[in-house]
Every structure is written in C-alpha cells, then in structure tokens.
Amino acid sequence: MHGHRKPTSFLLFAILFVLLASLAGTTQAQEDKAKEEEAAKLGVEAVVYGFPLVIVDVTKRVQTNVEEPNNSGRAPVNQFSNFLKYPTAAYKDVVRMNVDTLYSFAWLDLSKEPIILSVPDTDGRYYLMPVLDAYTNVFVSPGKRTTGTKAGHFAIVGPDWKGELPDGVKELKSPTNTAMIAGRTQANGPEDYEGELATKPRGRLQCDHANLLAERVGARRQVAAAPRESDAG
Predict the structure, then answer these.
(1) Would you say residue 231 has pLDDT above 70?
(2) Which residue has better confidence, 38 or 108?
(3) What residues form DSSP beta bridges with 171?
(4) What 3 state SS string does the chain have?
(5) How many Cα atoms within 13 Å fall on the side-chain side of residue 18?
(6) Which of 46, 102, 151, 193 is the most buried if burial means most Cβ atoms within 10 Å?
(7) Nearest one of 84, 90, 68, 79 to 200, comparing CA atoms
(8) What is the distance between the alpha carbons of residues 45 and 51, in angstroms, rounded to a whole number?
(9) pTM value?
(10) In degrees, to the nearest 5, what angle opens at C-alpha 140 toward C-alphas 134 and 141?
(11) Closest among 125, 94, 131, 82 to 232, alpha carbons compared
(12) Are the beta carbons of 205 and 119 closer than 8 angstroms?
C-alpha cells in the first residue's frame, strides 16, 4: 500500500501545480486587461481635457487673422468686431449663434497686462459681455442681468497678474491668459439695428491699463465712449 502512495502524491502535486499556473495566467491576463482599460480611460480624459484648447486656438487664429476689425466677427487680438446685423446660417466661425442679438467678438491676450473693458450706459437695453477662458468656460458675464445697464469699467486680468487698478474699475480674473468676449446686444429687428442702435457704442477695449490708471476713470480719454466701428486695442 505504501508503494502506491508516492505516485498518488505526485499526481496530486502535478494537478495542484497546473491549477496554480492556470490561476497565475488568468491573473496576468486580468491585469493586462485592466491596464488596457485604464489607458483607454485616460486617453478619453486627455481628449476631453485638451481638445477644447485646440478648438479655441484654431478659432482664435481664424478670427484674428485680419489687419483691422470687420463687421463679421473678425478683428486683431485685443480689438472688438461688432456685427451690424443678425448673423445668417452661413456664419460658421462659431456654432449656434443667436439670431435676435448683435454680437461683439474680441480675443484677448492677457499674458502681458490687463485689458480694460469699458461699456457705455445702454439706457436699459439688454446686453451681456460673457468672457470665456481657453476651455470655453464662461467665468464672468457683465451685463444687464449681473451688473446693470449703467456705464462700467472692468479689468480682465490673467491668472498670474498682480497690481493696482483705478478706483471704479472692477477686476475680473481669467483662469487662462487667452480669453474671448462674446458680447451680445438686444436688437429688435432690422429697423432697430439699422436705426438707433447703429449710432450707439457697445464697448471699448483698452490695453494700456497704466495709462488709464494715470488718468483715472472718466478723465480726458473718456474710455467709456468709443466709436463702435473701430474699438481699438
């Protein structure tokens, strides 16, 4: 009887070895699959995080590739382009445009200094000046709903800027050094935007905040009152 136990023990050992090897192989396959799934998940997250930056940069390049502002949404950096009429379905620079407001677009470079946004008294007319960061998040939106319709001055500053602003100028800190203003002004049909609205300024951008600081708000440059066709940066 003792002579038969050794082969039996050997057989049991062999079976146990095969089972352990099989389990090890299964565990390795599971680990490899988990790594692949994690890599795929990280890849998707990277695209979700980074793709808006690419789209924003491409849009910025398209809309700022002009020598001077026009009336179709394109202007050099730190200058406004004001629409003079409702956009049509043919407009493709930005998707899903409103068809009951006049747009004022501006791309901002905040890497060197703040940009002063001055808006006039709109006499109750609805408007808004939403400012988007490089991820297309609206981080602030001056306008009738949030700040009223009186004249106002806002310093849009980059994430690392530190300094002094004049009294009466509100700081608006952007999370990124690239920002976009997508302003909209109420227009009650062609008779409105071809009549009264055509002669009213919508806003002004001023790059030299130090000059504004020296002159103070409301001094000789009258920063709130600027022609709508050439909102110079």
Answers:
(1) no
(2) 108
(3) 155
(4) CHHHHHHHHHHHHHHHHHHHHHHHHHHHHHHHHHHHHHHHHHHHHHHHHHHHHHHHHHHHHHHHCCCCCCCCCCCCCCCCEECCCCCCCCCCCCCCCCCCEEEEEEEEECCCCCEEEEECCCCCCCEECCEECCCCCEEECCEHHHHCCCCEEEEEECCCCCCCCCCCEEEEECCCCEEEEEEEEECCCHHHHCCHHHHCCCCEEECCHHHHHHHCCCCCCCCCCCCCCCCCC
(5) 6
(6) 102
(7) 84
(8) 10
(9) 0.72
(10) 115
(11) 82
(12) no
Extract the tokens encoding 97. Answer: 């445009």
Distance CA 95, CA 191 (A): 26
Residue 220 phi, psi dihedral angles, 5° rounding? -65, -25
Q: Tokens 């890497």 correspond to what residue?
A: 111
Which residue, 176, 140, 170, is CA-closest to 158?
176
Tokens 């000789």 found at: 220
Q: What length is written for the chain? A: 233
Residue 22 confidence class, pLDDT cut points 50, 70, 90: low
Amino acid at 145: R
Provide the CB-side half-sphere exposure for 6 (13 A, CA).
Answer: 2
* Domains in the chain with CATH codes: 66-215 (2.60.40.1610)
Of 48, 69, 204, residue with least CA distance to 136: 48
Measuring CA to CA, which residue among 114, 110, 79 is closest to residue 205? 79
